[in-house]
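Session log. Operator J.P. requested a structure for one protein chain; no other inputs attached. Running the standard single-chain path with token output.
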Amino acid sequence: MLERIFHVRAAGSTPGREALGGVTTFLTMAYILAVNPVFLTAAGIPAQGAIVATALSAAFATLLMAFLANYPIALAPGMGMNAFFAYGICVGSGVPWQTALGMVFWAGVLFVVLTVTGVRRVLVRAVPEVVKLAGAVGIGLFIAFIGLQHGGIVRGDKNTMVALGNLSSPAALLTLFGLAVSLGLMAAGVQTAIFWGLAATVIVGLFTGEVTMPASLVSAPSFALPGLQIDFLGALRLQYAPLILVLLFFALFDTLGTLMGLAHQAGLLKDGELPRIERALTADALGMVGGALFGTSPVTSYIESGSGVAVGARTGLASVVTGGMLLISLFFTPLVGAISRPDAGGFTPLTAPALILVGTLMVRAVREIDWTDTTESAPAFFTALLMPLTFNISHGLAAGIVVYVLIKLAARRGREVHWLMYVLAVLFVLRYALLPA
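Structure written below.
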């Protein structure tokens, strides 16, 4: 049966190797179960519902990828997009989380339509590579900045806006410990470093009294899902259209980049193309829709799946194993809640190191930007810089697109710019001229 469904032997793998790959991928990405609720609760979603929605959406989308596209790729709420959901949409723009979930739903529906109709290819070709790369860098800096805040490493200051936090505080010391462990494991080549760093931080937190374990580590999950309160119609207000487009933008390019990178690593590309790519993108898009209905920020393919690929996973059977472990994690929601819960000072030092390290990994894209060409470096600089400084991903993206168009025109290289970029630049200028930031 496994051979008929997943073609394990044809892929040059074995069931045992697929199982090992699935477990490895789960351990590599398990931090999201504790980290994503931190963002969702910041948006106003109840903690218990945030934890269950995170695990369910990840399991649902990962199993979709397994059976629809037969790839060893796991999915979960995306880092960066959860930050934009919480701080860009709900906190920054004052959108109720119920309406924000509706926006994620409609962005997911658009993703499905664009994938099925093939329009997605036009959009992918229209946006220059430098904007995609700078977007990844900016989001990485943004996430790392949030992690530094949550860990008490930096703090707000009325004179300089940002200053060094109290490094002798329990939260900062625990964050620094978690960072040291995780970085050491990463330097040693341990692919599940973030997970083990998180585990080590929890253990030390227990001994120092900074972490209070719940009365029971295991319990039946509550299915009072946040998605049951989703506001479909409220999300369709014209003023929310730019935010929905930003959600769609990152869903499109984050997914495509992850899929192609993992396919290259696994040797799945044929003549530079990924077989069944439309199925994989459809699984991703449907996962985003399903995630909104469960009650979480946009779901996307996880680059951490590369850890499973590295140990031999080649088919969707590995994703079945990962999805199964995500479902089992639902019974450990009390433990996850204790990890993601802020301490008495409002810090979340257990998850802060994971945020900082994920940001570190995302910033690696900076090396692929051509810094010798001003028409490439300037839009990249403003995109990456303004995301953390304005505490808003969409502001950085808008700045990058507008600067890209203007500087290409100034250099008399306007023909290098796709017509859709001109349209987006005009729309962004009108948006900031006519609507409040």
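Operator note: The chain has two domains: 2-359, 369-437.
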